[in-house]
Write a structure and sequence with these properties.
Elements: H1 7-19, E1 23-25, E2 45-47, H2 56-69, E3 79-83, E4 98-103, H3 114-119, H4 126-144, E5 149-152, H5 155-165, E6 170-171, E7 192-195, H6 205-213, E8 219-224, H7 231-238, E9 244-248, H8 252-261, E10 264-267, H9 276-283, E11 288-291, E12 306-309, H10 315-324, H11 327-341, H12 346-358
Parallel strand pairs: 1-2, 3-4, 4-5, 5-6, 7-8, 7-10, 8-9, 10-11, 11-12
Helix pairs in contact: 1-12, 6-7, 6-10, 9-11
């Protein structure tokens, strides 16, 4: 589904562009990317739901059903690539078709984040959710077994998938469009730091806000979307901080300009799968303050393209990193950032994906 303007959503559009492929999705929200701006015609996107439920649980149930029973039309394709929570559509494949599964992560609410998700559920409903999650877990393991080839986006996910499912996979790192995300000449009278992660508990943006609440002399620009789960909670704290400026759903060009003008981008999610934010930032010549966790360890280079805080990402550590990575220090890292981002270029990704599909 295309609900957020996130890294995974952008990657699927770039993959479709590289392979000249059609996209089948549960729905495509108007607040997501304009596909044509990323080289994909809107006519090549087929949505299965016109008005999805607002409840994430109901949406998950409905999407599982429509992908399993309303996708027989995919038999007209020779090769089908699955990504996200659409594996139930594997049931629609014929024996003659080839299938690839590009795994961003095994569903975290079913595996490594299971207990964290259960704690958010009201006690009276937990038994029902345990049963539902057990069914979803069985379905996921049943469906992934049908994939001819499994690709993953990082070493982090290769290990996570093997641990929780027993399936081996090969890594194809996601890409950044370095023709678009590139250094610019933006300059600002007041240097600022940037966060554009989704406002969700696993992204820990609330800790970034708290850090800048304690640093009134430093400016933070906070990008968010209309559907972010922690939106109301985080923004309520932001309103108390005159040094924090907010942007809702900037265009790609506006986001790129914000990245270019920042002293650093701060990105501290918990056990991130891969993380598009660091490579987009580095492609613009902007270093990153990152959590030393998950896929970020595979992209950010300590002391050369940014600084790490611990995997716990405590507020005090964020404050220390911001003060350490001042605008002058950040400027010395710009060239190294651009070089590092080119290790994840769109052209390399597109070539690799074409080789796999053709094979």
């Amino acid at each position: 589904m295309f609900l957020y303007r996130g890294g995974g959503e952008r990657l699927i559009l770039l993959m479709a562009r590289a392979l000249d492929a059609d996209i089948v999705t549960g729905f495509y929200d108007d607040g997501c990317y304009d596909p044509e701006s990323l080289g994909v015609s809107k006519s090549r996107i087929r949505t299965l739901l016109s008005n999805p439920p607002r409840s994430s649980s109901l949406r998950k149930l409905l999407l599982t059903w429509v992908f399993r029973f309303k996708t027989r039309f995919i038999r007209e394709y020779d090769v089908v690539i699955f990504s996200g929570d659409c594996l139930s559509a594997m049931a629609s494949l014929s024996p003659q078709q080839h299938s690839l599964y590009y795994c961003h992560t095994p569903p975290r609410y079913l595996f490594d984040q299971y207990y964290a998700y259960m704690e958010k559920i009201r006690p009276l409903l937990r038994h029902v959710y345990r049963i539902a999650f057990a069914i979803f877990r069985w379905s996921y393991l049943h469906d992934i077994a049908r994939a001819d080839t499994i690709l993953v986006n990082s070493e982090t996910i290769r290990k996570r998938l093997l641990e929780h499912t027993g399936y081996a996979s090969q890594i194809v790192y996601p890409c950044v469009d370095t023709d678009f995300f590139s250094p610019g000449l933006e300059s600002h009278n007041v240097p600022y730091y940037l966060s554009y992660a989704r406002l969700a508990s696993i992204k820990r943006v609330d800790r970034i806000v708290e850090a800048f609440a304690r640093m009134p002399e430093r400016k933070l620009v906070l990008v968010h979307g209309p559907h972010d789960p922690q939106r109301e909670e985080v923004l309520a704290r932001v309103w108390e901080c005159p040094n924090i400026e907010t942007w809702e759903s900037p265009s790609d060009t506006e986001l790129r300009d914000l990245i270019r003008g920042a002293a650093a981008v701060i990105y501290i999610p918990q056990a991130e799968d891969f993380g598009m934010t660091p490579i987009e930032s580095m492609a613009c010549g902007t270093p990153v303050i990152a959590a030393a966790d998950g896929g970020l360890l595979e992209t950010v280079v300590e002391g050369k393209t940014g600084y790490f805080v611990s995997d716990e990402a405590r507020v005090e550590e964020i404050i220390e990193a911001v003060r350490r990575l001042d605008p002058e220090t950040a400027a010395t890292m710009s060239a190294a950032c651009v070089r590092r981002a080119h290790d994840f270029s769109y052209h390399s990704f597109a070539e690799r994906m074409r080789e796999i599909v053709e094979a």
